[in-house]
Amino acid sequence: MLKVLIVDDEEDILDLLAYNFEKEGYEVHRASNGADAIGIAQKIIPDLVMLDIMMPHKDGVETCRLLRAMPQLKDTSIVFLTARTEEYSELAGFEVGADDYITKPIKPRILMSRIKAILRRNTPEIPSTDNPNTLVVSDIEIKKDEYLVCRAGEKMHFPRKEFELLYYLASKAGKICRREDVLSHVWGNDVYVVDRTVDVHIRKIREKLGDEYIQTVKGVGYKFVGR
After folding, report:
1. Which pairs from 8-11 meet CB under 8 Å and 24+ separation?
2. How far apart, in whole angstroms, are the C-alpha atoms of residue 97 and residue 76?
3. Torsional class of 167: left (φ above 0), alpha (ψ -120 to 50), beta (otherwise)
4. Largest Cα–Cα distance of the chain, in whole Å?
């Protein structure tokens, strides 16, 4: 049974979400603020965390950032469900490692459909000859099963979306990856994200690896060129 942690300071929202998740067979846990959510997540290791942004003690963005810093939660999907519709709030959510950003109100059946799509997409794939566990390009070694990047022997940990974006670009090394293909492969067709989301994640990867690995092809997309 998949475990979901729902975090919102409005009791009626928690009740509604819990009812719909339980109806679909999920094991549901609740928290009314970010601080409690972190403690519960450490204990239960949920498959999914659903966060509001505006909450007491710790807001959703800070809570997401702290959850993403925990190695034991590397396979946990994190989704924002919030009334905040501003682009800067959405970008902030993706910057700290969210898998999706959903605005209220949303119909329960549509919400559950999106959640199922996210969980399917984030389920680790079985290694095969077409999808090797380890990718080596230039002086970068990427271990897909561990979400680990090694550069010249130095181990580096990336949040899920940054890792998946880097892995995708590195797997196409030397080829131009169009923005629409990047969005489709890394975020999927079931998730709407603004165009700048890719730029934000590219910038954060460059901050860790350096500017020389990923080349921007203006008006088209990106290319992993190594060094």
Report:
1. 8/32, 8/50, 8/51, 8/52, 8/55, 8/81, 9/33, 9/52, 9/54, 9/55, 9/56, 10/52
2. 11
3. alpha
4. 53
The closest of 100, 11, 103, 104 to 48, measured between CA atoms, is 100
**Calpha distance 172→166 (Å, rounded):** 10
> How far is 8 from 145, CA to CA, in rounded Å?
32
Average pLDDT over residues 95-113: 89
How far is CA 23 from its chain centroid?
25
Contact 44, 17 (CB under 8 A): no
pLDDT exceeds 60 at position 128? no
Domains and CATH numbers, the chain: 3-122 (3.40.50.2300), 134-224 (1.10.10.10)
Q: pLDDT (tens digit, 9 = 90+) per residue, 69-84? A: 998 898 899 999 999 9
